[in-house]
């Protein structure tokens, strides 16, 4: 199992969060997603996968529904 941490940008409400989660779960291998919604700010997120996940795949998925993704540096991801 792999874990990827990042910040989602552009989420303003629970509907935005639901759209972003749906997009993330469409990425092959995603098994769990946890997001701390910060309306109008950067929302920390952690994604677990059954296979290695790339930030590029996750960024593309949330980008298709209008949101951004910022990768956390390794020290901040802990």
Automatic annotation (TrEMBL):
Q: Which GO terms describe its molecular function?
A: metal ion binding
Q: What SUPFAM superfamilies does the entry give?
A: HMA, heavy metal-associated domain
**What is the protein name stated in its UniProt record?**
Copper chaperone CopZ
What Gene3D superfamilies does the entry give? 3.30.70.100
> Where's the HMA domain?
2-70
CDD domains in the record: HMA (cd00371)
Q: Name one Pfam family in it.
A: HMA
Q: Which superkingdom heads the taxonomic lineage of this protein's source?
A: Bacteria
Q: Which organism is it from?
A: Cellulomonas oligotrophica
Under InterPro entries, the record lists:
HMA_dom, HMA_dom_sf
């Amino acid at each position: 199992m792999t874990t990827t941490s990042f910040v989602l940008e552009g989420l303003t409400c629970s509907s935005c969060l639901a759209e972003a989660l749906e997009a993330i779960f469409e990425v092959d291998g995603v098994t769990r997603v946890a997001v701390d919604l910060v309306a109008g700010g950067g929302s920390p997120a952690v994604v677990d996968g059954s296979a290695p996940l790339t930030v590029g795949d996750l960024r593309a998925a949330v980008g298709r529904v209008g949101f951004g993704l910022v990768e956390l540096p390794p020290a901040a991801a802990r």
